[in-house]
Amino acid sequence: MKLTFWGAAQQVTGSMFLLEADDYRLLIDCGSDFDLDEIGRKNRYDEQKSVFPFDASLINTVLLTHAHIDHSGNIPNLFKEGFEGRVVCTEPTLSLTALLLKDAANLHQKRLNARNGANSKKKGKKKKDVPRDYFVEKNVIEALDNFVPVAFGQRYRIADHISITFYAAGHLLGAAHIVVEVFENGEKKRICFSGDIGRSNYPLLTDPQEVPDVDYLICETTYGNRLHETTGSPSAALADVIKRTCVDIPGRLIIPSFSVGRTQALLYTLNKIYADHKFPNLKVFSDSPLAYSSTKVYQRHVRLLNKEARSFQDDNDMLFDFDNLIYLESSDASRAISNYNEPCIIISSSGMVQGGRVEHHVEANIGNPYATILMIGYASEGTLGWRLLNGQDTISIRGKQLPVLANIEKIDVFSGHGDQNDLIRFVKMQNPDKLKSVFLVHGEQQSMADFQSKIQQLGYNTVEIPLRGQTYEL
How far apart are CA 198 and CA 58, in angstroms? Predict the structure, then answer.
């Protein structure tokens, strides 16, 4: 049996791992690589003459840990290049992946239209080359027809010698740790792919589920050398910010947030705050059509949420809707709230303030000393969110240089990733005397190195940090 690391190897994004057992090929995750820019991806794909470094038609089955695009975003391209098998995931992952892939397809179409210009259809006008990794909605629909949902805890046989089981990972609705059992040469081998590991006591989601003993563990390391900074409950942390920024002063609170997962945790927490703290009638504007659709998916799957969320649902009928919540669907409605002069809260994507409607809200309020921009998650270096967090006096938005007069704050209670302690807790589910190897993925190189040292001190001696394309015999 062979395991090859084709993505998230010494980097954070692009999760993709190829497991070969006899003549059966399993691809675990098939994510978009955001660590490379568009030129870097083009050069790689041109060199490979494909989006993938392998023949897509030879893959038998894809296992998907969760819906986020850095884990699912290249699935339509796999079908475009000849894959004819199934994509196996949980039911909520199927629903959320459908939304995210269709959103990505729409973005690709808009970029293609912009690249080719308004007159691209005129006779004699040559269209620019289409990037290999771009897909359209038709490709998404074709892919989704081949998704197979499987319940948590249900042992599912995908071949005579291979079975899989999904265990709840937290992090996102439907997210899973996947345990693969392979019978080879009369011997049973178990491999666990962590996916993204959630954190304990996160709004809405259950805690990460315990995984049985395995022989090999593939473990993410996004927060391999970091601890979450904000202490206390999400409700207390958010209520404190609202009181200081919208109640004590007549201000405006802008919260950049990812549409899938993070926004639902925010809306649920705001619903609880409004029920418990009796804040004044502050309007809350949720400005993301994708967030609105994702929230409906969360509401449909209440039975998979944690006990507190289910109890809140029983007592209040709705997890997310409350009197002062307004969903903004059109771009015109989004721009119009710049003229709303009362204290309010605006939640908009994207979380790193890189593209999306939130850029407009930041641009409109960055010069307002009565406005606060609250960052609630990680922002990659170079993004507008990263520049705000690093205290720059001026920032450039849409070609305009603007002074930063708004207040910039940060809390990390809404980060869906487990920190170093959560990752250690996950690894320690395994007996160090029985676990043959740990493979560290999905993290920055320093994070991986620090986490490798940390778990080696706990007695896990064989801890590998694979390179992209590196193959191991299991």
Answer: 32
Q: What is the C-alpha to C-alpha distance for residues 7 and 314, in angstroms, rounded to an integer?
A: 42
**Residue 459 DSSP class:** T
Q: Report pTM.
A: 0.94
* Crossing angle of helices 137-144 and 91-116, rounded to 10°: 160
Output the 3-class SS for 245-268. Answer: HHHCCCCEEEEECCCCCHHHHHHH
Phi, psi (rounded to 5 degrees) for 107: -65, -40
State the Cα–Cα distance between residues 264 and 268, nearest whole angstrom.
6
Alpha helix stretches (DSSP H) within 133-229? 137-144
Stretch (H or E) spanning 166: strand 162-168
Cα–Cα dist 469/139, whole Å: 27
Q: One-letter amino acid identity for 63?
A: L
Confidence class of residue 38 from pLDDT cuts 50, 70 and 90? confident
Q: Give pLDDT, residue 118.
A: 52
| Rounded distance between C-alpha atoms, residue 277 and residue 237, angstroms | 13
Cα–Cα distance measured from residue 14 to residue 178, given in angstroms and rounded to the nearest whole number: 17
* Helix (H) / strand (E) containing 149: strand 147-149
Residues 390-425 have pLDDT tens digits of: 888 998 888 889 999 999 999 999 999 999 999 999
Dihedral Cα 116, 70, 191, 421, nearest 10 deg = 170
**At residue 278, what are phi and psi to the nearest 5 degrees?**
55, 45
Task: Please state, in angstroms and rounded to a whole number, the distance separating the CA atoms of residues 175 and 72.
Answer: 12
Facing residues of 219 across strands? 440
